[in-house]
Amino acid sequence: MIEKLLQQGVFVVHALKGYEYHEKRLIDLFSQNNISFEFVTDGDPIYFTDQILKKYFVPNIQSILSEGVLSCTLNHIYCLEKIVERNLDYALVFENDPFFLGDFVTDLSKLANEIENLEAGFMISLENSTLRLPSYWDVKKNKHLYQASTCRMSGSYIIDRQGALAILNEIKINKCPTVIDGWHDQLIQQSVIKMFWAHPPLVEEGSHNGHLNATISTKPRSVFRRIAWASQKFYKLYIRRLFPTKYLIKTNTQIECNKQPANQSLQPLAVMETLEEF
């Protein structure tokens, strides 16, 4: 499954101009990992027409999104169409600034069995962009996928064919109203698609860690940004995970296991809930 995915179903949302360094870096990175991929650039602003924008977006979308953000979102939608047109079981979608956090192909292979056992109609976030992670108490041995109520941005994710179909059908009915990340969150909340987080994450976006600029990011490439990211990452990875996260969707079995005994003080739990937004 993973071999087929990496040879037939990898798409990179990209811009036609201004990101030549990113393009060369990706070609080298994916070549080193024996990954075949396709740049998706058909949503570039030079191709915008009223007909195209009306097909996919709400009428006032150009007053909501900047040209670059709109282009990026459209390219994500074009990735979905390619998945359906080519009858792919699964696809892997990147934006153009990924950094692998380990041996990507090996780490991805560890997810294969869980992916194949998921109910159709899902996305799997592979990245750490929001630094939202399962708490120490939520992580289970030999488990890598955790259902969540929100995405972690849209820089690196796996989506299955049914998930792509569900989103494209939503476009036919209601159109896309916002940037891709926010729209993914809306689709999750509306139960159009199910979201899972891969843990540990496999990918980090260069626009977040300070090593690269990106087509829609306002965060600059800088040493300061790298230091700030490293500090946030240390806190979220090693300290914040001591406390529960509200973003995971727990099964009935997990809820029963986590219930407090009737005679046990609830004070520690209350403290954790207070720190949830910290």
Could you explain the architecture of this structure?
The protein has 278 residues and is an alpha/beta fold. The protein has one domain: Alpha-Beta Complex (Spore Coat Polysaccharide Biosynthesis Protein SpsA, Chain A). 43% of the residues lie in helices and 13% in strands. It is built from 13 helices and nine strands. The strands form two sheets. It has a seven-stranded mixed sheet. The longest helix is centred in the N-terminal third of the chain and has 19 residues, at 67-85. The termini are far apart. The relative contact order is 0.14.
The backbone outline, from C-alpha atoms, is globular
Domains, number: 1
In what range is the share of β-strand residues?
A: 5-15%
Rg over CA atoms: 19 Å
Distance between the termini: 39 Å
Any idea what the CATH architecture is? Alpha-Beta Complex
By secondary-structure content and strand pairing, the structural class works out as alpha/beta
Number of helices: 13
State mean pLDDT (0 to 100 scale): 87
Which sheet architecture does the biggest sheet show?
7 strands, mixed
Using the coordinates above, name the CATH class.
Alpha Beta
Helix content: 40-55%
Q: Which H/E pattern describes the elements?
A: HEHEHHHEEHHEEEHHEEHHHH
> Could you give the order of strands across the largest sheet?
2-1-3-7-5-8-6
The count of DSSP E runs of length 2 or more, i.e. the number of strands, is 9
CATH topology: Spore Coat Polysaccharide Biosynthesis Protein SpsA, Chain A
Provide the low-confidence segments as ranges: 253-278
